[in-house]
Design goal:
single chain, 98 residues, mainly alpha
Amino acid sequence: MHTIFLNNVGIGPFGMFGIFALGSLSVIAIGLALFALKGYSLWYAAKRDEKGWFIALLLINTMGILELYYLYSVVDLWKKKKPQDTDQKKETVSEQVK
């Protein structure tokens, strides 16, 4: 009878502590993702010798918003690169033949 009471208030294996474990795992996963994003953006800022962006990314904590803006807008990391024009390739081939 005592164990049934404890399970009803959330102290059993599927009770309140299970929810806390899931929540703490989520917080850890999000924290690791934000840590990786900050490191990646700081690495790009240092590589491109952008001291202002490096200091801003290092000191301002915006939960990944500033880092994503920097990587997407400034670095153009996720933008698709346009393929080279086929006309240029034809010209270089025709020039090589001559």
